[in-house]
Design a protein that fits this description.
The complex is a heterodimer. In chain A, 37% of the residues lie in helices and 26% in strands. By secondary structure, chain A is an alpha+beta fold. In chain B, the strands form 2 sheets. Chain B has a 4-stranded antiparallel beta sheet with strand order 1-2-4-3, with helices on one face. A 3-stranded antiparallel beta sheet of chain B has the order 5-6-7. Classes of the chains: A alpha+beta, B alpha+beta. The complex binds adenosine-5'-triphosphate (ATP) (2 copies) and magnesium ion (2 copies).
Chain lengths: 188, 278
């Protein structure tokens, strides 16, 4: 079966007042659907090291710590509230509308497709994807920061290389079949 | 004034056109390296919308009263895409870390989750919410029910807590209250038969209502009751004509002046029903 899916990266902005301030990717949500099947998966950064290094205040760290649950609740509510009459992109765009402060959606991927054998295959794929997308967002952001850090005092440069394995807890869960009916026929 | 669009935190350059569904987006400019929120983008037809003017007037009144509404500047968006509003405003982002009410309220709901955070949140809530409640009653703010993100909680650079009250585009008797839900509750457009006289109860997050400081409500009410008529005229009168139609301007002045002494009784009834508070 062919799974259509999109991912959203959630980032945390360290200083909202500063247009040049740092942001760090902290989570990824994937929402996908196929005939008669819905799937979602998410991963979020563990904040322990950011807290111990004094980078996060207690409220920010609690909120990032709760991100997996927030993403899960968002997907379930976005689908239920519309009786399943939503498309993948609707779920991610509504996430973007609801997270617009320190925690915000920094990017949404174009729609992609993947051939999967069955619902279990879809969930395995989704879990692997959110991990890959978050790792890659973290590496990109670290590289950008490293470039900027070259012109900075060392203790100003905030972030972190790629988190060690085990630092990215994930969840994936089936959602009821959903879809808004007619849509563009995407060439994949 | 040159403005860089799409200054969503951490983002540069042009943004997806879907950004800010209901119309707004974050902006910045080189001369002022701060972030602000620009709205509205959606254009509203007819002379009585004046959303940017409403935001500006309420922010200015709030400043005089000590209510935590961020400063608003009118901003003519000369480069607005075809069909979008040009008479806009920008609202300043005040604090480095901010979270919408829907992410914060759990610590008020259940203090045992973290007493430390509850303490931080409650350090600001009773006084700031009391002041905002009174302002909302005065300007007939319809948008602060249990809205997930029209109230945000911020931490300043010293970690100090501050609630921030946003989104007054539909206050002051906008036609939005012709919605059957509001009509059934007695709301009227200010424009219609002195609709500003309606003795309405403004929606406010119930959890906040439970904790508002009664003495601060009282003090703020007195400041509204004694608010100089000339200051209302100045705040409303300085809005340029292309932002605020002359006829609507007179209605807003009459409504604000007239409502000053109409809000005490409905507010007291509302607080009586909410329990709690000191
Ligand atoms: N000055 C500000 N400080 C912090 N956050 C702001 C500010 N202005 C706007 N925001 C953020 O942007 C969101 C949208 O702003 P606002 O509510 O004023 O516009 P809106 O047109 O009602 O948009 P929407 O319906 O999309 O929420 C707010 O809920 C808040 O999260
Ligand atoms: N002139 C109008 N007359 C009637 N209804 C209106 C008018 N303008 C807006 N509305 C409705 O009022 C609601 C709020 O308007 P607004 O443009 O602020 O949307 P919004 O910002 O998405 O709302 P919110 O801030 O609550 O998220 C919308 O549902 C909109 O359809
Ligand atoms: Mg709003
Ligand atoms: Mg609004």
């Amino acid at each position: 079966m062919r799974l259509r899916y999109q991912t959203a990266v959630v980032s945390f902005c360290l200083d909202l007042t500063d247009p040049r301030g740092y942001s760090i990717p902290v989570g990824v949500l994937l929402v996908g659907q196929s005939e008669g099947l819905g799937v979602a998966a998410a991963t979020a950064l563990r904040t322990d090291r950011l807290v111990t290094s004094g980078f996060l205040d207690p409220i920010s760290s609690e909120i990032i710590g709760d991100l997996l649950a927030l993403l899960q609740a968002h997907v379930n509510e976005a689908i239920q509230a519309n009786d399943g009459n939503v498309d993948v992109s609707d779920v991610l765009l509504s996430l973007r509308s609801s997270l617009r402060n320190s925690l915000y959606v920094s990017s949404i991927s174009p729609e992609q497709c993947e051939e999967v054998a069955d619902p279990i295959g879809a969930q395995t794929f989704a879990t692997g994807s959110v991990l890959r997308v978050l790792r890659s967002a973290i590496i990109t952001s670290s590289n950008q920061l490293r470039e900027r850090a070259a012109s900075m005092e060392e203790d100003e440069a905030p972030y972190l290389l790629e988190p060690p394995p085990g630092y990215l807890p994930t969840a994936s869960w089936p959602v009821p079949p959903f879809g808004a009916g007619l849509r563009d026929s995407h060439p994949c | 004034m040159a403005v860089a669009y799409g200054s969503q935190p951490g983002r540069r350059g042009t943004d997806s056109p879907r950004e800010g569904e209901a119309g707004g987006l974050y902006v910045t400019r080189d001369a002022v390296p701060r972030r602000a929120y620009l709205k509205p983008r959606k254009r509203e037809h007819g002379p009585f919308g004046c959303r940017a003017a409403r935001e500006k007037i309420v922010a200015d009144l709030a400043r005089d009263l000590g209510v935590a509404v961020p400063p608003v500047l009118l901003f003519v968006r000369h480069d607005a895409p075809q069909g979008e509003e040009t008479s806009c405003c920008v609202s300043l982002v005040l604090y480095g870390r901010q979270f919408p009410w829907h992410q914060i309220k759990r610590w008020v709901e259940d203090p045992t989750q973290s007493e430390r955070i509850m303490e931080l949140v409650m350090r600001d809530l009773p006084v700031s919410a009391a002041r905002a409640l009174v302002l909302n009653a005065w300007v007939m703010q319809s948008e602060h029910g249990d809205h997930p993100h029209n109230i945000v909680f911020g931490l300043d650079s010293d970690g100090g807590p501050h609630f921030v009250y946003l989104d007054y585009a539909l206050a002051l008797g906008h036609r939005f209250v012709d919605d059957p839900h509001f009509r059934a509750l007695g709301w009227r457009r200010w424009k219609d038969e002195e609709g500003w006289k309606a003795p309405v109860t403004v929606p406010f997050p119930p959890l906040m209502l439970q904790h508002v400081s009664r003495s601060e409500v009282d003090a703020t009410l007195s400041r509204v009751e004694d608010f100089p008529e000339g200051e209302v005229q100045a705040v409303v009168g300085r809005i340029p004509g292309d932002y605020l139609h002359e006829q609507e301007r007179d209605i807003l002045i009459a409504g604000l002046v007239g409502r000053r002494r109409l809000i005490r009784a409905p507010l007291e009834r509302q607080l009586m029903g909410s329990g709690g508070g000191t």
